[in-house]
Amino acid sequence: MTTTETNPACLDATDALRWLRSRVRLRPGRTLVGIDGPEGSGKDGFAEELASLLADGGQQTLIISLQDYGLDGNLGDCNAAEVRTFIEDVIEPLRNEGSGRYRTPETDDHGHPRWKCADEQAVILVEGLGLHQAPCCTEAHKLWDLSIWLDTPDEAPPQPSRSEPSDPHDDPSGPPTEPVSQPDLVVDNTQPHEAID
After folding, report:
1. What pLDDT shows up at residue 170?
2. pTM value?
3. Domain-located, residue 126
């Protein structure tokens, strides 16, 4: 397994949790972490373990699940208006430069959405399928401060949809319409791993 100090190519889950904990500690303000992977790769469990690890270190953590907001399946296949509303009401406010006031999946007795405020130093773990695709990640924009792909034996991490030229103006066909972003970290999540102190 080859790793670098700034971006490990692929780590097992135990080493990945340690790597993420060290990177999040170095960041000022809120940190958005996107946790992606194929169906059945354990995104929710990995998010819970990372949240527990960070909370043990004194950091406020918040887990956002796409399913809780009715965005089931691949985010790219969901209703575009619902995805846009989710990003505007939930993700954008939770970014480091956002207000911190976000819409929760719960509603009040009258069916109106409930709102909460996240701490200025909170780590927000967003888990779901399709977080490395548009509209979350494009050629020019990535919502996540850190992004994770949970690898399984049958699935490879997301790759760019085609080779991209160094200068998009050199390519007469233009940039791809649905670019796929590379994750910051690929995690081998196929084997159980030990608890981290």
Report:
1. 38
2. 0.80
3. yes
114 occurs within a structural domain: no
Q: Which residues pair with 188 in a beta bridge?
A: 12, 151
H or E stretch including 124? strand 123-127
What letter does residue 152 receive in the DSSP assignment? B
Pairing of strands 113-117, 101-107: antiparallel
157 in a structural domain: yes
Nearest of 2, 41, 49 to residue 21 by alpha carbon = 49
> Any idea what the CATH number is for the domain that residue 45 is in?
3.40.50.300
Distances (CA, A) of 13 to 34, 62, 130, 138, 159: 15, 20, 20, 27, 21
Name the residue type at position 59: Q
Residue 36's domain comprises: 29-78+122-162+176-188
Do residues 179 and 160 make contact, with C-beta atoms less than 8 angstroms apart?
A: yes
Condensed to tens digits (0 to 9), the pLDDT of residues 143-182 reads: 999 999 998 766 555 654 433 333 433 333 333 333 357 8
Q: Where are the beta strands (DSSP E) in 13-67?
A: 31-36, 61-65
Helix (H) or strand (E) holding 25, with range, is: helix 13-25
Domains: count for the chain: 1
Residue 130 lies in a domain: yes
